């Protein structure tokens, strides 16, 4: 189907269209019937509307089992992209649920609609099979993320973080665009599949090499991989916490999905090889270097952080490193392992930021000491934190462990005769042993230290508690029964 | 029935979590009841299986699909060796709770973590799927950390973190080996599996075994206190609360040894033969070093902590012999040390330290504890002689078999180990003498110190009697357990390890 009449377009982009309608409804409601109501009420009603919109979009995407390729790769829909969209929409739902207790802004309608707009960008990104569409949807998502970072107008650090994020982001967008234009120049097409068809025979000519490096720089920035990670700690720390969750969760899922697609489809034929003693120039060695740097630097720097949000930022860098292993192994297994890992990571990290939001609201900060005695002040909250952080550390039977096992076994299996990629996996496992230390430092505050003498019990808004418990349950469930998720991600 | 040992423990955790915040009494009884139920299930299940099946066979207990893509199944099973250790876990769990009856601070959470640990330990001993075994193995790390960091003493946070990091590093070495093994096995056979029995039939290439065996073995052996990776053990034991030390020494160190035997040696027999000498050497160093250091400690608990390193050296030496009698001795020693170390830590931590608030042997000398706490003194003497390896107690049979096994392969290690045994007698007698029966003039009869010590409570007596009885029964009738262990060593699982290579 390549005609492109408007009805087809609507059918293809229905989930995105539903979310767009939701944006309008939320904005309208906030400006009309919710005017003059209390902040909490506006957040609750607006949040409920947004959640409803996202859930119906997700339900639509989940129940349609069709494949489209519209306008020569502008919008590609198949069951896998639909499932990834469902995951992104659910992550958005959880992000909205943990924001409803927020007191960082009066502009509820704008805040919620920006999150939804960002989600639309991510949804289109997942469906994109064409360089132009990739760039446009990536920019739609990025622009909303910059604004979301700056959304706490009462806090100078929020603005500083957003400016830093924006400047770095603008630069990386320029790199990406430059890379894409060179790619177009080399291949004569913007469609990923056709690019790949025109590349063979050219080998690694210098122009193509520049295009490749520029593309990896652009995406390295998006996923916060070393050495393009400098914005991440400041943005995570300065942004309102739910915004950080959105940056860390939903946007990662889409970025990794499309990065794997560009590299494996668009740059097919110039993979090269990153195996030990078997180096061949191409994109896998470049990604391998970025992955190794991210794992090492992210984990080692996280050890010395005293702010939990910064700690989560550096751990996000480290996790980006693990995820890049799934990209560079470049097999069907490794890509489904990657998606499993990113989705469960997204669930976990939204939960972790949700806990931080509550603690911040109750104690006024996100330093390690603010978590002291959490297990006495709120047993449910600290149990959730325990589940999230242990999952990030990769302790079984939580989802993070199974994700790591899938990812690492798929990476090693990519070269099963010589175990050539084992060196990366050994590095990753060694670094994940390091990560255990800093997650345990947070948990030590929560479970071992005593709360300040006069600290009252922490009140958690019902909606947030519901979201956190649901997330924790999901993390445990996906760890014990990963097939619930893998059945949708299997290569087809 | 055996599978319910795991489930019961976790049900106990859930019940504890549902109790009101400060219900300390209820929490104790729930925990004790859970542990006794687990122990009873373990015994009943073990005896039933011993009656009905050949213990050499691996008898499935529970089997369900888990992760088909990896070939991982939820596969619980048991053979004689598992049964021995499951029974040990049941006994140690009950005794540990009896000796923590006096925990007043956040009682509910203490027992919740305790039961998670117990559930994980049962799980490891019953798993015959490597991934499942690994899951339970890592599950035990977290409760260990919190038990020590929250309820411990003497540099508890340092000890807890050290223990957690050592365990985690060890298990990650295992994880690397596991991932590589899975890939190699899949490449070789064409289908993915993590079933221990199926994996044990695969002939892994010698070059692969050469590096993967030490990785997995050391990964597990860190937790078994292999020298020079043992340093977590003394600090961890000393920092832990009494029940924590009892479980650490009693069952957690056995997890490591069990992993070495069950995973590393069974899967990579050629690697085991290749590295046999190195392991034996390290084990002997551990035996002598642990005993030597124990001899000069001032802190009573450090004496026991280092003695654990020494005794676990015997287990590792038994494993390194790679002959049936040595392995049988190693498993028996796991059981025996689990019981005796638990008892020793109970005396030091609960009976003495919780009353006197000092563990310095020079201070204890002046307290004349042998008169003030006669029950503690007698218990420690019994535990001490059992630990030295006096005939009639479980330790003797175990160490004797290990020595015979070692004599057959490395006579020199048997001789050196004899030196370790003599040192063992020395440090035990020194501790007994200094702590309980010293010649220093007792304090004036009416000094407050001597009379303010509360008497030994009923739970403590019950726990001590339970452990002493267990050690005596095994010491007097070693065939009870040997009949469980020996058929396993003749089973196909161990065939390649014991018969495959040059004897």
Commentary on this structure:
The complex is a heterodimer of chains A (492) and B (503). Chain A is mainly alpha-helical. Chain A has a domain at 271-492. Chain A is 73% helix and 1% strand. Chain A is built from 21 helices and 2 strands. In chain A, strands 1-2 form a two-stranded antiparallel sheet. In chain A, α10 (231-238) packs across α11. The radius of gyration of chain A is 22 Å and the shape is globular. Chain B has one domain (3-499). Classes of the chains: A mainly alpha (492), B mainly alpha (503). The A-B interface holds A 375, 390, 395-397, 401-402, 405-406, 408-409, 412-413, 416-417, 419, 422, 425-426, 429-430, 432-433, 436-437, 440, 444, 447-448, 481-483, 486, 490 and B 66-70, 109, 131, 134-135, 138-139, 141-142, 145-146, 149-150, 157, 161, 164-165, 168-169, 172, 175-176, 179-180, 182-184, 186-187.
Question: Which features does this protein show?
Answer:
heterodimer, A: 21 helices, 2 strands, 73% helix, globular, B: 503 residues, mainly alpha, two-stranded antiparallel ribbon
Total count of strands of chain A? 2
- Element order, helices and strands of chain B? HHEEHHHHHHHHHHHHHHHHHHHHH
The major beta sheet of chain A can be summarized as:
2 strands, antiparallel
Biggest sheet strand line-up of chain B: 1-2
Tell me the total number of β-strands of chain B: 2
Greatest interface and its participating residue counts: A-B, 34 and 33 residues
Structural class of chain A: mainly alpha
Mean pLDDT of chain B: 86
Strand content of chain A is: under 5%
Give start-end ranges of low-pLDDT stretches of chain B: none
**Helical coverage of chain A, percent range:** over 70%
DSSP strand content of chain B: under 5%
Radius of gyration from the alpha-carbon trace of chain A, in angstroms: 22 Å
Uncertain regions spanning at least 5 consecutive residues of chain A:
none
What's the story with the biggest beta sheet of chain B?
Answer: 2 strands, antiparallel
**What is the straight-line distance between the termini of chain A?**
20 Å
């Amino acid at each position: 189907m390549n005609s492109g009449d408007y009805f087809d377009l609507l059918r293809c982009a229905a989930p995105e269209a539903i979310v767009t309608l939701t944006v309008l409804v939320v904005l309208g409601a906030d400006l009309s019937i919710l005017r003059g109501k209390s902040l909490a009420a506006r957040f609750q009603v607006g949040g409920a509307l947004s959640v409803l919109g996202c859930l119906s979009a997700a339900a639509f995407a989940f129940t349609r089992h069709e494949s489209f390729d519209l306008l020569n790769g502008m919008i590609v829909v198949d069951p896998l992209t639909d499932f990834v969209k469902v995951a992104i929409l659910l992550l958005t739902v959880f992000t909205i649920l943990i924001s409803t207790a927020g007191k960082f802004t009066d502009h509820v309608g704008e805040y919620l609609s920006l999150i939804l707009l960002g989600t639309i960008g991510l949804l289109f990104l997942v469906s994109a099979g064409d360089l132009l569409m990739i760039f446009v949807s990536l920019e739609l998502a990025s622009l909303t993320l910059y604004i979301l970072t700056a959304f706490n107008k009462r806090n100078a650090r929020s603005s500083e973080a957003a400016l830093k994020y924006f400047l770095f982001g603008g630069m990386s967008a320029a790199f990406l665009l430059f890379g894409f234009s060179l790619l177009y120049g080399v291949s004569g097409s913007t469609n990923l599949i056709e690019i790949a068809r025109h590349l063979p025979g050219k080998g690694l000519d210098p122009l193509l090499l520049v295009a490749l490096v520029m593309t990896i720089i652009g995406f390295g920035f998006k996923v916060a991989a070393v050495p393009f990670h400098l914005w991440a700690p400041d943005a995570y720390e300065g942004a309102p916490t739910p915004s950080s969750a959105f940056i860390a969760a939903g946007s990662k899922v889409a970025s990794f999905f499309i990065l794997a697609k560009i590299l494996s489809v668009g740059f097919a034929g110039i993979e090269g090889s990153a195996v030990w003693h078997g180096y061949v120039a191409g994109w896998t060695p470049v990604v391998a270097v970025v992955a190794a740097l991210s794992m090492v630097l992210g984990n080692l720097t996280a050890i010395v952080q005293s702010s939990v949000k910064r700690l989560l930022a550096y751990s996000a860098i480290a996790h980006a490193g693990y995820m890049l292993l799934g990209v560079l192994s470049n097999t069907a297994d490794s890509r489904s392992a990657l998606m499993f890992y990113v989705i469960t990571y997204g669930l976990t990290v939204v939960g972790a930021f949700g806990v931080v939001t509550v603690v911040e609201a109750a104690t006024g900060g996100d330093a390690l000491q603010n978590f002291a005695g959490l297990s006495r002040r709120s047993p449910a909250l600290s149990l959730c934190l325990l589940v999230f952080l242990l999952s990030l550390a990769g302790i079984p039977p939580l989802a993070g462990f199974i994700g790591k096992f899938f990812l690492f076994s798929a990476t090693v299996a990519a070269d099963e005769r010589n175990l050539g990629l084992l060196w990366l996996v050994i590095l990753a496992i060694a670094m994940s042993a390091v990560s255990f230390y800093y997650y345990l430092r947070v948990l030590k505050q929560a479970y071992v230290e005593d709360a300040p003498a006069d600290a009252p019990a922490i009140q958690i808004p019902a909606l947030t508690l519901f979201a956190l418990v649901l997330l924790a349950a999901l993390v445990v469930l996906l760890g014990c029964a990963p097939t619930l998720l893998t059945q949708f991600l299997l290569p087809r | 029935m055996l599978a319910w040992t795991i489930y019961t423990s976790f049900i106990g955790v859930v019940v504890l979590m549902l109790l009101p915040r400060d219900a300390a009494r209820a929490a104790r009884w729930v925990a004790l009841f859970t542990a006794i139920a687990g122990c009873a299930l373990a015994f009943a299940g073990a005896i039933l299986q011993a009656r009905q099946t050949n213990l050499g066979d691996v008898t499935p207990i529970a089997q369900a699909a888990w992760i088909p893509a990896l070939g991982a199944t939820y596969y619980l099973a048991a053979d004689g060796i598992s049964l021995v250790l499951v029974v040990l876990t049941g006994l140690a769990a009950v005794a540990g709770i009896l000796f923590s009856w006096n925990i007043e601070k956040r009682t509910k959470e203490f027992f919740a973590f305790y039961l998670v640990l117990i559930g994980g330990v049962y799980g490891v001993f019953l798993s015959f799927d490597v991934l499942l075994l690994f899951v339970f193995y890592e599950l035990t790390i977290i409760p260990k950390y919190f038990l020590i960091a929250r309820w411990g003493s003497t540099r508890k946070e340092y000890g807890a973190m050290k223990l957690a990091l050592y365990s985690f590093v060890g298990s990650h070495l295992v994880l690397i080996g596991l991932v590589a093994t899975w890939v190699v096995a899949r490449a070789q056979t064409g289908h993915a599996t993590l079933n221990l029995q199926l994996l044990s039939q695969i002939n892994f290439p010698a070059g692969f075994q050469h590096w993967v065996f030490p990785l997995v073995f050391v990964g597990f052996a860190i937790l078994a206190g292999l020298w020079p990776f043992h340093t977590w053990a003394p600090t961890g034991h000393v920092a832990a609360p009494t029940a924590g030390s009892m479980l650490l020494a009693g069952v957690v160190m056995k997890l490591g040894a069990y992993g070495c035997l069950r995973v590393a040696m069974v899967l990579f027999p050629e690697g085991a033969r290749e590295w046999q000498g190195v392991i034996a050497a390290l084990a002997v160093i551990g035996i002598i070093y642990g005993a030597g250091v124990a001899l000069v400690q001032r802190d009573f608990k450090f004496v026991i902590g280092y003695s654990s390193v020494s005794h676990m050296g015997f287990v590792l030496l038994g494993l390194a012999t790679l002959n049936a009698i040595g392995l049988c001795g190693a498993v028996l020693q796991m059981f025996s040390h689990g019981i005796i170390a638990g008892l020793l830590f109970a005396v030091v931590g609960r009976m003495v330290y919780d009353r006197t608030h000092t563990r310095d042997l020079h201070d204890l000398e002046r307290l004349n504890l042998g008169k003030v706490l006669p029950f503690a003194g007698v218990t420690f003497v019994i535990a001490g002689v059992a630990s030295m390896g006096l005939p009639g107690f479980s330790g003797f049979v175990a160490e004797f078999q290990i020595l015979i096994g070692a004599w057959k392969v490395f006579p020199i290690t048997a001789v050196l180990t004899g030196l370790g045994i003599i040192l063992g007698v020395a440090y035990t007698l020194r501790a007994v003498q200094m702590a309980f029966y010293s010649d220093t003039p007792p304090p004036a009869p009416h000094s407050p110190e001597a009379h303010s010590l509360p008497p030994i409570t009923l739970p403590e007596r019950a726990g001590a009697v339970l452990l002493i009885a267990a050690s005596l029964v095994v010491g007097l009738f070693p065939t009870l357990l040997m009949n469980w262990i020996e058929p396993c060593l003749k089973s196909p699982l161990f065939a390649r390890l014991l018969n495959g290579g040059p004897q």
